[in-house]
Specification:
This protein is of the alpha+beta class and about 190 residues long. The protein has a 6-stranded mixed beta sheet. The chain has a 6-stranded mixed beta sheet with strand order 9-8-7-12-11-10. A 3-stranded antiparallel beta sheet has the order 13-14-15. The protein has 2 domains: about 80 residues, duf1285 like fold (Roll); about 100 residues, Roll (duf1285 protein fold), CATH 2.30.270.10. The chain contains 4 helices and 15 strands. The model has no long low-confidence stretch (mean pLDDT about 90).
Amino acid sequence: MMKDLLSYAAKLENTGGKPLPPVDKWNPEYCGEIDLIIKRDGTWFHEGTPIGRARLVRLFSTVLKREGDEYFLVTPVEKLKIIVEDVPFVGVLMNVTGEGAQQSLTFTTNVGDEVTGGPAHKMEFRKASKISAASPYIDVRSGLEARISRAVFYDLVELGERRQMDGTEMFGVWSSDMFFPFGRADEIFD
């Protein structure tokens, strides 16, 4: 079963900029679990060892599928469950164009996806667990999300502003004519 996944990944490597595979339309037979973990920091581990080949991680990320709270690597003929500690991707870079409500925030993930905050890629500020600090997250594709890295989060805070929403002063950022609140301004700054 792993052999099929690796051969499929090798075929993907030669696609040269073509669209991502339609994993959301694939419903192959469940084949079991694979010892693959995506850590909270975005590092992919196979059998306890970090996967050092960035191209292989990128290839696997293109066949990643989420169903509810579970994650799978899928091909048209197989489906292998993996473990994801938080979310599968980390937003490691941000590009800002424009200002105010017209600004666009484009994030690059640790696996090379680029998404611009807006109606198709909403941002949310939340805690991953009871012990973690709150962080911003952004939709990447088909239910897969990226947690914005701490360094990029500091850049987001620099761009943040206060805005009245339903009678409450909120703090957040604009992207593609949408305001994404981080939380109540009095809770953030007190």
